[in-house]
Amino acid sequence: MRVNDLIDKYIAYKLLEAPQLGASLLEKLRAIRHVFGELDAETDGVELAAIASHHWEGKAPATRQRILVQVRAIRNFGYRSALISRPTPIPLPYVNNTRYVDISPEQLHMILEVAKRVYPWAYPSLLLLAHTGARLGEAMRFTYQDIRSDGKAIVIHKPVGRRTKTIERVVPLTKELRCLFQCGAVPFLYPDGKRIPNHNEASRVLGKALKVCCEILGYQELRLHDLRHAYAALIASYGGDLADIASALGHSNLQMTMRYRGLVRNKLESIVEKI
User: Fold this and answer.
1) Percentage of residues in the chain having pLDDT higher than 70
2) Phi, psi at residue 166, to the nearest 5°?
3) Contact call for residues 4 and 73 (beta carbons, < 8 A)
4) Who's near 25: CB < 8 A, 6+ residues apart?
5) Predicted confidence (pLDDT) at residue 137 exceeds the cutoff of 70
6) DSSP per position, the chain
7) Which end of the chain is least crowded, N or C, by CB within 10 Å?
8) Cβ(69)–Cβ(45) under 8 Å?
9) Predicted confidence (pLDDT) per residue in 57-76, tens digit
10) Other beta carbons less than 10 A from residue 54's beta carbon
C-alpha cells in the first residue's frame, strides 16, 4: 500500500469524527503526499526521516518534526486498522519548543478580571484553562460530574489510543473555580449560550478574546496553550516542585516536565543544611 492510499483511508476515518478537516491538517497532508505519497506505507522510519531532512534542508527542525509526527500518526492508524504491519519508529529532530511565559500571578489575575468584564461568556473557559493547566481538548470534555464529591478537586480526562480509553488525573480546584462552579457557570459557550462545537472553533473565539484582554492591559500576547504554561509557572512561584508540575499537567514522561526546571527554585542547598 502506498502512502497516498493510506492517507485516503486516514481522511475518511477523520471525517467520521468531524464534518471537515482543519486547515493545518490539510496543509500537512498535502506536504506528505508531495514528498512521501508514492512510497510504500511500510517504508523504514529512518529512511523517511532522511528524506524529510533532505527535502526540508535549511528549514527549522520544528517543520520536519510536525510533518514526521503526522506521518507517524497516519502509519499508526494504518497499523491499528490492520492495513499495514507494525511501522518502524521514525526518529524525530530535537526541538526545544518550550515557551516560557513571563507572567506573574498578579498579571494573570488581571487578565482574567478583564475577561470577566469584557468577555463574560469567555471567562469560565479561560479560568478553567488557567487554573487547571488542562489542554484545550481536555477542558472541553469537562462536565459537572468531573467535580469530586467534596467540591475541592476536578478529574481531568486525557484520551489515549483511539480515544477508546482515558488517563485521568485529579487537580485541586482554586477558590475562583469553586466559586464559579457553585454559581452553575458552564464553560465553552458562545455569548448566546450555545455550545462551542469543536476544538478549532474554541481556539479561534477564545484565542481572540484572550488576545484582546492582553492588548487592553498592554501585556505580551498569549495563546490559549500559554495558559497551561502559566499554570506551571504559578505552581513553581508558590513553591511547587517538578513533581507537582508533572502531576498537575499530566505529563507522560519526565522529559516533558524537565522543560520547566528553570522555573523551580533549587532547594538542594537549604535541604543539605538540615542534614
Assistant:
1) 91
2) -135, 155
3) no
4) 14, 70
5) yes
6) -BHHHHHHHHHHHHTTTSSS--HHHHHHHHHHHHHHTTSBTT--HHHHHHHHHHHTTTS-HHHHHHHHHHHHHHHHHHHHTTSSPPPPP-PPPP----------HHHHHHHHHHHHHH-TTTHHHHHHHHTT---HHHHTT--GGGB-TTSSEEEEEEEETTTTEEEEEEEEPPHHHHHHHHTT--SSB-TTSPBP-SHHHHHHHHHHHHHHHHHHHTPPP--TTHHHHHHHHHHHHTT--HHHHHHHHT-SSHHHHHTTGGGS---HHHHHHT-
7) C
8) no
9) 888 888 899 999 999 999 99
10) 9
- Give residue 162's pLDDT: 46
Q: Which amino acid is at 223?
A: R
Span 148-155, average pLDDT: 92
Q: Is the pTM of this model over 0.85?
A: no
Cβ contact 139:128 at 8 Å: yes
What grid cell was written down for 18?
Answer: 468531524
The backbone torsions φ and ψ at residue 81, rounded to the nearest 5 degrees and listed phi first, read -90, 10
With cell 469543536, the residue in question is: 198
Q: For cell 488557567, what's the residue?
A: 130
Q: 169-176: which pairs have CB atoms within 8 A and are 24 or more residues apart?
A: 169/247, 169/248, 169/250, 171/132, 171/133, 171/134, 171/248, 173/131, 173/147, 174/131, 176/112, 176/127, 176/131
Determine the residue type at 58. Answer: G
Which cell numbers in the block locate residue 239?
513553591
Output the furthest CA–CA distance in the chain (Å, rounded).
65
